[in-house]
Amino acid sequence: MVAATATAMATAASPLLNGTRIPARLRHRGLSVRCAAVAGGAAEAPASTGARLSADCVVVGGGISGLCTAQALATRHGVGDVLVTEARARPGGNITTVERPEEGYLWEEGPNSFQPSDPVLTMAVDSGLKDDLVFGDPNAPRFVLWEGKLRPVPSKPADLPFFDLMSIPGKLRAGLGALGIRPPPPGREESVEEFVRRNLGAEVFERLIEPFCSGVYAGDPSKLSMKAAFGKVWRLEETGGSIIGGTIKTIQERSKNPKPPRDARLPKPKGQTVASFRKGLAMLPNAITSSLGSKVKLSWKLTSITKSDDKGYVLEYETPEGVVSVQAKSVIMTIPSYVASNILRPLSSDAADALSRFYYPPVAAVTVSYPKEAIRKECLIDGELQGFGQLHPRSQGVETLGTIYSSSLFPNRAPDGRVLLLNYIGGATNTGIVSKTESELVEAVDRDLRKMLINSTAVDPLVLGVRVWPQAIPQFLVGHLDLLEAAKAALDRGGYDGLFLGGNYVAGVALGRCVEGAYESASQISDFLTKYAYK
């Protein structure tokens, strides 16, 4: 149960350094349409200064949430009249895949992978990427640093008696708490730390859940909301009286209400694993953009949105071809909440105020490569670096949040004889990374890795990329759901029917949740357009 709970709870610029070998301590380089998606978009007619277009729906934001919303409208609801607008010159949002084919490297500088749930697999198949899917080894271990040693995390119940990450008393405390022998809920919204310590004990929190919070949210579990950030686990206690009670009740309900037959087109992943694409995560937004064609407009900056006198909304854009006006029956904002706040303030100051209060801490993705012989022998399995990666509790004296073994996780990420490591550093408990140089970030990562994974005498790493995201991941803090509801309610009070909020601060921060949220948003938009047609 401890392993299952931890897995459920664990279910993100600067110029590159040009792949040069640099001593980490020495070198530094300065570094007519039915739906429109506002973040980068497309329209059928060519734009010109003063041009006016119309759409049933505009999707504001061409990140993964916006693109998948447009794709879902087309494939699930027959709404092909969609416009997606993106302020940047490329689609995909924070998804950033970089390739050096001449050197044999391919890496990610934003999110690294996704859990292959059926909605994500459906989106991939509908986008023509079924044959490009790649899956990690479900048996590959995950590690947590504890007391100077990388210790495997239990992946199945049979592992529980043997893993050394927790003591026997800690395991007993977790088991009893999961059964319901623990203090009752306090009658208020709990943080992740409060919920886990109360239900499963200190060891589960400090050695499993705290590092997972760092890895998933780059967040502070003493401030993250259990209900908002890990709602599925929170609901187990809420509905069943305890974590195990809720699990049993969920299984019983599923047996009474079986799911419809699974789409036969979808591949069947083996076990609990993660997935990507042959040429990286960017294949998905690129494929959707190609499918939508001229409905995706890049380098379109939304400057204002107003309520139309004739129902719907008018959106004004600055584009490479000049000012463009779009008349839309519905709009979904999939851009970050702080951007949406500024745009929506003229419509509703209450909604804008609520949206402005979501917090996005900075995170840096540092990608380095070492020769295989640089890995400590005790970290090798059958002579190879195997596993998903490692997480580092804040109490263990390292600055890096975690390290993904990119070259072990998916094929063709690094040349023979090299290992590729993606490291995340920063987050809510270390916002000072924004003032560090690229070389200082690399040095911090290299210093940490030499404490547990890399030989202390190994050569300096080959630095492939350092990407700093100043506002990286929205934090689902205590009160998050109340703020989100306040923003939606303010729009409702203002009479802004057909204006929807979407994106990762609404659906969840994991890539899979963004896709699932896109399907949910598409259903809401389709329902609205159906009602709109009869008004």
Automatic annotation (TrEMBL):
<protein>
    <recommendedName>
        <fullName>Protoporphyrinogen oxidase</fullName>
        <ecNumber>1.3.3.4</ecNumber>
    </recommendedName>
</protein>
<dbReference type="GO" id="GO:0050660">
    <property type="term" value="F:flavin adenine dinucleotide binding"/>
</dbReference>
<keyword id="KW-0809">Transit peptide</keyword>
<keyword id="KW-0934">Plastid</keyword>
<dbReference type="InterPro" id="IPR036188">
    <property type="entry name" value="FAD/NAD-bd_sf"/>
</dbReference>
<comment type="pathway">
    <text>Porphyrin-containing compound metabolism; protoporphyrin-IX biosynthesis; protoporphyrin-IX from protoporphyrinogen-IX: step 1/1.</text>
</comment>
<dbReference type="InterPro" id="IPR004572">
    <property type="entry name" value="Protoporphyrinogen_oxidase"/>
</dbReference>
<keyword id="KW-0627">Porphyrin biosynthesis</keyword>
<keyword id="KW-0150">Chloroplast</keyword>
<comment type="similarity">
    <text>Belongs to the protoporphyrinogen/coproporphyrinogen oxidase family. Protoporphyrinogen oxidase subfamily.</text>
</comment>
<comment type="function">
    <text>Catalyzes the 6-electron oxidation of protoporphyrinogen-IX to form protoporphyrin-IX.</text>
</comment>
<keyword id="KW-0350">Heme biosynthesis</keyword>
<keyword id="KW-0285">Flavoprotein</keyword>
<keyword id="KW-0560">Oxidoreductase</keyword>
<feature type="region of interest" description="Disordered">
    <location>
        <begin position="247"/>
        <end position="271"/>
    </location>
</feature>
<dbReference type="Pfam" id="PF01593">
    <property type="entry name" value="Amino_oxidase"/>
</dbReference>
<comment type="pathway">
    <text>Porphyrin-containing compound metabolism; chlorophyll biosynthesis.</text>
</comment>
<keyword id="KW-0274">FAD</keyword>
<dbReference type="GO" id="GO:0004729">
    <property type="term" value="F:oxygen-dependent protoporphyrinogen oxidase activity"/>
</dbReference>
<dbReference type="GO" id="GO:0009507">
    <property type="term" value="C:chloroplast"/>
</dbReference>
<dbReference type="InterPro" id="IPR050464">
    <property type="entry name" value="Zeta_carotene_desat/Oxidored"/>
</dbReference>
<dbReference type="GO" id="GO:0006782">
    <property type="term" value="P:protoporphyrinogen IX biosynthetic process"/>
</dbReference>
<feature type="compositionally biased region" description="Basic and acidic residues">
    <location>
        <begin position="251"/>
        <end position="266"/>
    </location>
</feature>
<feature type="domain" description="Amine oxidase">
    <location>
        <begin position="64"/>
        <end position="522"/>
    </location>
</feature>
<dbReference type="InterPro" id="IPR002937">
    <property type="entry name" value="Amino_oxidase"/>
</dbReference>
